[in-house]
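To: structure subgroup
Subject: Chain for Friday's discussion

All,

I'm putting the inputs and outputs inline so they're searchable in the archive.
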Amino acid sequence: MDKNVNPRTRALVMTALLAALGCAATLAVRVPSPTGGYLNLGDTVVLLGAFLLGGAYGAAAGALGPALADLIGGYAVYVPATFVIKALMALTASAVYRALGRRAAASIAAGVLAGLWMTLGYWLYDGLLARSLGGALAGVPSNLVQAAASAAAAAALAAALRRVRAVRELFPKL
């Protein structure tokens, strides 16, 4: 790790990198859900960004990448909701991860709680769009599947990355 690089500059660059990765992961594999949306890998990157970068920078990366993917992917109506929901998802994951001690169990718990927030957020937004919270319940199961898969994948990736000294030096919050 270059000691001459300003830590804030490094954090901004890593935030941009994880935002781009989040956008790419969201767009790369899109499995259509029965409710008109799609399952994707983006939430794995949102969670990983929260673990690697911490609260504010993780939230920025987690909000920007998937929101941009919604815009590019033809879901512009979801951009504002995705921005807020994913930012709060990353903030939740980061806070729980740090509170529980940055271990494997902490990353799983953080992913699960953040995934529940994501599911609740999209249920409320879909309810607003449809003018029916009952009708919006149709999207809950696919969001729960995505949340569970993302929590498991992010926990596994974080555990693997924690073993790499260069990663620990680059991302001291991991």
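Points worth raising on Friday:
The first helix runs from residue 7 to 28.
DSSP finds eight helices and two strands in the chain.

D.
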